[in-house]
Amino acid sequence: MRLEGVAIDDTFAEAFGMSGTRLVITADTADWARRAAESMTGFATSVIGCGVEAGVESMLEPSATPDGRPGVAVLLFAVSRDALAKALTARVGQCVLTCAGTACFAGIAGETRVPLGRSLRYFGDGLQRAKRIGGRRYWRIPVMDGEFLCEDQAPVQDGVGGGNLLLLGRSPAAVLAAAERAVAAMHRIPEVVMPFPGGIVRSGSKVGSRYKFLMASTNDAYCPTVRGAVETALEPDVTSVLEIVIDGLSEGAVGRAMAAGMRAAAAGGAAEGLTRITAGNYGGKLGAFKFALHALLA
Amino acid sequence: MMRFTLRQEPPLRLAADALVPERLAGRSRGEIERLPLAIGNRPSMLGDWFRVSGEAEATLAIEGPCRRLDRIGAGMGSGSRIVVEGDAGAYLGLGLRGGAIEVAGNAGFGAATDMQSGVIRIAGNAGDGVGGALPGAAGGMSDGAVIIGGRAGAAAGARLRRGLIAVVGDVGEGCGAGMLAGTIVGGGTIARGAGAAMRRGTIVALGRAPHIGACFADCGVHDLVVLRLLARELDRLGVEALAARIGSLRRFMGDGAVSGRGEMFIVG
After folding, report:
1. Alpha-carbon distance A114 to A119, whole Å?
2. Residues facing residue A12 across a β-bridge
3. Does A71 contact B at CB distance below 8 Å?
4. What is the pLDDT of residues A70-96, one digit of tens each?
5. Is the pTM higher than 0.80?
6. Phi and psi (nearest 5°) for A251?
7. Which residue of B has its CA nearest to A28?
8. Is the ipTM reported for this complex over the cut 0.90?
9. In chain A, whose CA is at the least distance from the CA of B223?
């Protein structure tokens, strides 16, 4: 299959079940809400190294937030509910509670919940107050600029982590431009985040290493500078490969994002330098979810 | 919708426990007219007092001279609705478990006593003891919302455990006395004794500043997110008149006399 002259491999991305949640962070201005959100979703690119994968889902108008202030929706994913709970407490405690003027709300509904404000409330040293409004329970923790208001618990749900696309091309600039277009298109799809810097990762990995202490190492089959020394997956004219990893609250959302990403990446046409789009998998033996590229574009 | 028209004002208190949609479901009109109603301490039948029309549905209407009609909607569950096209007697919505009760006129003593969920709207005034506790009970109303368009009598929200009581007009003495949690919003003047011995919870006085007990600590004027949430909730419940007046408010913490961790907000 070709899209605007760009080859689409007949393969699939293999993704895994995750526990995920959405938080809504508000502040007096959109800028301060964004700062808190970017801080709490920083160093959250991979569960392997960071314990959690997270990113900004969307900016929210005041009319779309619980307290009528500008806000940001963030998504967080971890391998288990307990791991997610631990990450939430640490990240909201260090990056949102600390940020001027912010409040933190649960962004999804559900019966399965993990502690949020109820873990952070002790910072109030006995001066914290619980408040139930409209069926939702909040903690109000006194801080130096007023109060930090935080939802008591955050619902969690099954999510999907590790949807991916690999973009191959004749120049690093062309591949980066295509990847940027893809990420911009994916950002318009609800319920997904691309957790790497700018949504793009250059250090794709393979399972295992020649070093016993390392569980993953560089995906040498896609590294152009060593193509002559390894069993390469690259055509002779490929000089750059970038990957986009997608985590989502549902299988459908990840699939829609991958489709939108492929279309946007290929929109520049093969003449621009993007030659092929493929995806990473483990032979279908590890992940619970398989996203066939051709089926997504059908 | 089934309509119950009270033929005449009863000489004694008439207990309306039977007039709840889920208790009428599946019954014929004849069966409904034979349901027992207590008039004072004597038994009678519903048909002795009410003219019944329409079909039994999730909503029922009550009309006529109902100021002695007590316990309207007592124990009603979610999904049901009662519309009272006039006044209501004592213990409106006693132990309400869900659904909605709307009263076009005034309500008597003890509206929303031991209420557990749902919404009660009283367009006129409410008597004493709104949202209170059953005799001997430690706590009163435990959830839901009571919206009063006029005034509320004494001891509104006394021993309130949870939920929201919003009064557009004045509120009588002892508002929120001994309250355990929950929220009371008063749009008019709140009389003396507000929040006395309150342990937790929130009283918001949007009218003339009430007398604040000596054991409440002034914490200054603040524009808090929790007040924005409260304003939006009032707006959602249709009490825009109060919602629009919530902004920066002066916060008092108390009642220190009982090591209380409650709060009162006043204007200015």
Report:
1. 10
2. A292
3. no
4. 999 999 999 999 999 999 999 999 999
5. yes
6. -65, -40
7. B225
8. yes
9. A146
